[in-house]
Amino acid sequence: MSRPLDRLRGTGHLWGVGLAAFGLLAAGTWLQDLLPERGAPEDDRGARPHVRSAEVGETVDLRAVEVSVDAVAGARTRLEFGSELISPGVWIEVRYTATPVAETTQLGSVELVAADGRRWTTVGRNENLCTESSPGVAAHCAAYLEVPPDAVPGLRVRLAVSPLDQRYDAVAEVDLGLTGPDAEEFGTAEPLEAVAPWVGDGEAS
């Protein structure tokens, strides 16, 4: 039979374990509260991306990388590896240059935004053809996204490093300068041939 002192020691041990577990739980909850939530609520203004507006040809500082949109084109058909990809709308080609600042980086997010707020990302047949490059070395890239013709006037492109989590990040939003006549011209333009990304000076081979 256990003695009263032994029972007291056992009870104290259980209380100690319980308090320690409670302390770990409290500490974990405190740490979780400090970390930003994935997909911050829309009313969390502090977590929203820092959008930096620009026009074609202007360089935008995204901290980790400097980016500029160099040219824009459009057509109903895109050529890729000898195959024709015909869009019921139009393909938009956005050629851009990304130059890392301090470490090897790749621009991973390209999104088209219409004047009425509709958005298209690089899913399905849409593609962002880019590659990593070293600090100070330019990567020349091209993105191909299809949109309905009525979305062409006022279309903007959003460029960012991360395709997943852009909270607190810097995002370039570039006005492509497109109008209604551009949409009509794209409807009868020659097919766009996909341009492979390249690094450094010079033109695409």
Outline the structure in words.
The protein has 205 residues and is an alpha+beta fold. It has two domains: 1-35; 46-199, Sandwich (Immunoglobulin-like). The chain contains two helices and twelve strands. The protein has helices spanning 4-34, 180-187; strands at residues 50-55, 59-61, 65-80, 83-100, 109-113, 119-121, 127-129, 139-147, 156-160, 170-175, 192-193, 198-199. Strands 2, 3, 4, 7, 8, 11 and 12 form a seven-stranded mixed beta sheet that branches. The chain is globular, with a radius of gyration of 26 Å. Mean pLDDT is 80; it is low at 11-41.
For this entry, give a set of tags.
single chain, 205 residues, alpha+beta, Immunoglobulin-like, 5-stranded mixed β-sheet, 2 helices
Strand content of the residues, in percent?
35-45%
Remind me, CATH topology of the largest domain? Immunoglobulin-like
Counting structural domains, the number is 2
Question: In sequence order, what are the helices and strands, one letter per element?
Answer: HEEEEEEEEEEHEE
Task: Give the beta-strand count.
Answer: 12
Helix segment count? 2
Write the layout of secondary structure elements.
Layout: H1 4-34, E1 50-55, E2 59-61, E3 65-80, E4 83-100, E5 109-113, E6 119-121, E7 127-129, E8 139-147, E9 156-160, E10 170-175, H2 180-187, E11 192-193, E12 198-199
Parallel strand pairs: 1-10, 3-11
Antiparallel strand pairs: 2-3, 3-4, 4-8, 5-6, 5-9, 7-8, 8-12, 9-10
Describe the structure in brief.
By secondary structure, the chain is an alpha+beta fold. It has two domains: 1-35; 46-199, Immunoglobulin-like, CATH 2.60.40. It is built from two helices and twelve strands, in the order αββββββββββαββ.
